[in-house]
Amino acid sequence: MVEQKRKNALIIGGAGFVGGYLVRELLAQGQTVTLTKMEQEQVPQGDYHVKNLNLLDTTEVENVITEINPDFIFHLAAQSSVALSWKNPTLTVDVNIKGSLNLLECLKKISYTGRVLMIGSGEEYGKILPEEVPIQEDTVLRPGNIYAATKGCQNMLATIYAGAYDLNLIMVRAFNHVGPNQSPQFVVADFCKQVAEIERGKKEPVIHVGNLAAKRDFTDVRDVVRAYVSLIEKGIPGETYNVGSGNAYAIEEILQKIRSKAKKEITVDVDPKKLRPIDVPLITADISKLQRDTGWKPEISLDQTIEDTLQYWRETL
To answer: Which of 248, 245, 249 is nearest to 296 (CA)?
Structure first.
């Protein structure tokens, strides 16, 4: 029996929340993995290679890709906080648009023949009309924040490059993904961290929240990275795929689930500083295209994700 050659995967922007889970998923499948990070970022040691990369330096981008010559590239590098995009739109444009364009230009220049997953966001859809739910990939984009606009631009650029230069680019619009080790600037991690701090007596028994009425599509990050690997292997180049659970949960419902697992009584306080200038009431993904082309489906329940995330913060604190 002929031994199958190990695939060589490159994760651009692998130091973040999703990168760590994607590394583990690829290593579990027997792939060789290299991740890039910014010079100041730290990653744990493991059975993978690490390279510093400034995505805004075109020479660095080309040198890393030609040296590694990967079969697969996962483009995770982004300024991914909606809140920060309001405060620092210039940084968000530089990383999400200029950085992505640098990557695309490099792939064109070297006539790259491997497969590339360009990670975007469900935020790109923006203001959704009631009749557009669940959201399909051909829904008109009406981005309602700066982060969403930059990711929409990344998707358009990648779609153009895939068609014009015959590059194997597969585009993703990932909806909210959650799980242990996520930054508390995101809602589920924020709530779980606050509960863990209250349980340890580090703060008063009040949880500070933003808009509780918004409904979002939440997927466990471990399911999300399985979807990414399925898409880079089976997705159709030039196409865009939603990645989500296909279910919407009100932030208030998630908060109640977290409070029910708390070891102390907790009251709720709406903090105006946590409210966004513009917020979309309902976002749910239609994931039928993803399921049709890859066979993927989510496996981890929201209750399990919350339990694991809460336990992570209890142990971390």
So the answer is: 245
The single residue listed with the structure tokens 């050659």 is 5
pTM (predicted TM-score):
0.94
Q: How far apart are CA 229 and CA 30, in angstroms?
A: 12
Phi, psi of 66, deg, nearest 5: -70, -35
Backbone conformation region of residue 250, classed left if phi is above 0, alpha if psi is from -120 to 50, else beta: beta
Instruction: Round to whole Å and give the CA distance between 232 and 168.
Output: 9
Residue 281: the pLDDT is: 77
> Could you give the residue ranges of the DSSP H alpha helices within 94-235?
99-109, 146-165, 187-199, 221-234
Contacts by 291-297, CB closer than 8 A, 24 or more apart = 293/231, 293/234, 293/235, 293/236, 293/239, 293/241, 294/227, 294/230, 294/231, 294/233, 294/234, 294/235, 295/230, 295/234, 296/226, 296/227, 296/230, 296/231
238: left (phi over 0), alpha (psi -120 to 50) or beta: left
Element containing residue 72 per DSSP (H, E) = strand 72-75
- CA terminus-to-terminus distance, the chain: 50
Indicate the burial class of 44 (C-beta count within 10 angstroms; 0-12, 13-18, 19 or more). Answer: exposed
| 3-state SS assignment for residue 216 | strand
Q: 243 and 305 in contact (C-beta within 8 Å)?
A: no
Amino acid symbol at 89: P
CA dist 141 and 132 (Å) reads 11
Chain segment 269-308, per-residue pLDDT in tens: 988 777 666 566 788 999 999 999 999 999 999 999 999 9
